Amino acid sequence: MPQAYEFLAKWFECLNDDCDYPAWSQYFLSGLARLGAGRRGLEVGCGSGVFCRALTRAGYVMTGADRSAAMLSEAAARTREEGLDVRYVQADAAALPRGETFDFILAPNDCYNYIPQDRLPSALRRAAGCVSHGGIVWFDLSSAYKLREKVANNIFADDRDDVTYLSFNKLFPDRVEMDVTLFARRGDGAFDRFDERHVQYIHEEADVAAAIGRAGLTLLKVEGHLGAGREGAERLNFICKRP
Hints:
- It is a single chain.
- This protein has seven helices and eleven strands.
- The protein is of the alpha/beta class.
- It folds into two domains: 8-142 and 203-241, Rossmann fold (3-Layer(aba) Sandwich); 146-200, S-adenosyl-L-methionine-dependent methyltransferases (N-terminal domain of TfIIb, Single Sheet), CATH 2.20.25.
- It has a seven-stranded mixed beta sheet, sandwiched between helices.
- The longest helix has 15 residues, at 21-35.
- The protein starts with 11 loop residues before the first helix and ends with a strand.
């Protein structure tokens, strides 16, 4: 089966138009300013580049990294359409290349849920090595509660004029496997079918905190989506600093 986001890339922002990207972007902008982060940032798992574009419009110098070539192509096209300058590179969040350092790293919207539990500490060590001393590493995860209680063993559907999205989700002890089907309208009005599989790993908050410490990062704060409380949160933000 094709890898995650091979076909979904074209439709990703459209199908997520209810997540309020402007408010989400402002959450990062306000937080980075409050933390005194510098101006050079790397977004890991940048997808179609929505946050890279928002931060660039606010004056940051952004690089976007993603393992999906299709997502990077979509990001580059959308960035050109807006007349912005963002550098995009193909890189795996679990094995970021060494050599260049940034003032901060963002890894939003479930990026690290795609990394198995045993690889998370090394992935965070790689991230720590990509920021300067005093730099910020800020990532979020879909919480264990969300994956087990809301996503797993469930079916999600979104039917639009030009695309229909279906996701059939199955729970395993350490992960949720999502078989995604897209029906996308062609120019002649007929629909093509595309299938891909997504695997998101379940990370417990305490285990993530321990992995952050082993990576040589200082955990500054854990908070829910857009700064909400942690109790019962479906998304947890881990805001860290390299000493």
